[in-house]
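job 3f2a | input accepted
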Amino acid sequence: MMLGNIAAMFIVLIIVSIAVWKGLDFYTHHGERIVVPDVRGKLESDAQYALSQLGLTGVVVDSAYNRQMPAGSVVDQTPHGGNEVKSGREIYLVVNAASSPTLTLPDIADNSSLREAQAKLRAMGFKLGPVEYVAGDKDWVYGVKSRGRNVYAGERVPIDVPLVLQVGNTSYEELEFDAFDELEEDSEEDTDPADDEPIDVITAE
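job 3f2a | predicted structure (205 res):
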């Protein structure tokens, strides 16, 4: 009797172990592999549907901006198309924004040299166009333009539009020389030629 009970318990233990093992295989999808589709370029809703049809879940984790692609379309995905994953795996999506991201313009106008301004703006992610030279101290930034208009510190500026720095192109010595020339010209204009003519003196006879 006792041996019979032990045998029965042993059989039950084996059955439970097999059931747990099969259950884990089902839960973890052991041995099941799904090829991830390439959903880049599809609208997010279409990408989500395509993934769900294969037992995958699309999750939007970030946005980007690509003017060549429609707003709301998938710019990138992880894992990429062609990789094999288990059913139920989350596929991370980067979706194209409707407009270009913007950044706050720092205070650089009349506050920094050309080299300082370029380094700061590039580090922040701005694009830079050709420099526009204006009258002023050499390599000193006097203004910033975006899309042909002046922009100022604190404004939100699209990062895909190149900024144009207005930079002085005259050295301090040249400015002093020009100022001296202007003073000379002014003094010459103030001199009346009639003052240089001799004055006739009439004496009484």
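job 3f2a | The radius of gyration is 39 Å.
job 3f2a | closed
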